[in-house]
Amino acid sequence: MRYTAGEIADLLHGVVYGDRTLPLTGFTAADRARSGDLTFAENKTFFERAEQGAASAILIDKDYTSQRKVLIKVQDARIAFAKVVPLFFPEPKPAKGIHPTAVISPKAKVHPTACIGAHCIICDDVSIGARSILHGNIYIDEASQIGDDCSIFHNVTLYPRTEICNRVRIHAGTVIGSDGFGYVQEGGAHLKVPQVGHVIIQDDVEIGANVTIDRGALGPTLIGKGTKIDNLVQIAHNVVIGEHSLIIAQTGVAGSTKLGHHVTLAGQVGLAGHLRIGNNVTVAAQSGVMHDIGDGEKWFGSPAQPDKQMKRQLLALQRLPDLMRRFNRLEKAIRSKVTAQRPPNPDDIVR
User: Fold this and answer.
1) pTM metric for this prediction
2) pLDDT (tens digit, 9 = 90+) per residue, 294-344?
3) Whether residue 262 lies in the annotated active site
4) Would you say domain 3-88 falls under CATH 3.40.50.1000?
5) What is the rounded distance in angstroms from the CA atom of residue 55 to the CA atom of residue 40?
């Protein structure tokens, strides 16, 4: 693709310092840029590197100047980066229409503008909306719904009655709607509790590769609008995740836990079941949460605690070896003093 610096600036509501007609044919990191490329600099170090490199233009959000490069000043260079990259690297799409190897029930409703890739299986009473893309080897079970402008990548499975709203992206290998892990004991054996609920994925959610989201035991498991889920995440039955949350790799959320909006669970976080996590909560990586968390709090550790409390404990723990040495020296000195002051034991006197 080819754009001028002025066209890029107009798209980003930015200002060009230099030649607005400069043609730009690519976007890349400063250390790999060639003539004709656009790059970005979100701090002084990046800017100096970009100015010394071969890129023709630099996206900036600070008052830098250059005699060598065309500058495009925007409000936030990283946000501009996210908006510009798709211009130069548009997502490839499969051929339009329905691949001849796809198997589609006559009871399914597929919008004429949808794209159904090779070896997809679409069961009874499924609905697929406008401009949605199923890339291949995808199984959509009965009565599931997929909205408009969705992208579902290879080897995804949707169990019955899964509801996918609009502009949802689901990456390869993900399974949505499998049985929740529910059992009761009877006579020493595990009796399965039927899982008859379903899953609802709201608008603008992105789900990474090899994620599993279990359906509810009775009601739905729900992923809120705008939430982003990283690879290798497990969401259990009847979990509710609020809007615009971030669930990062290898996190597990146990059954019936409710998360508010704008929650961040960093990598390898584990949440116990039936918890209530408030709005704007952050849980640091590798934390194990066993208690409810109020709005706006930051927790970490295993078991997780409020961050200030946990930091004090970690600082104290770092001092523990030195404190133990001091204690041992003090204990030894006290014993020596007590021994020296102790009166002789008559039994110890040799007659």
Assistant:
1) 0.86
2) 999 999 998 999 988 888 888 888 888 888 888 888 888 888 877 777 676
3) no
4) no
5) 10
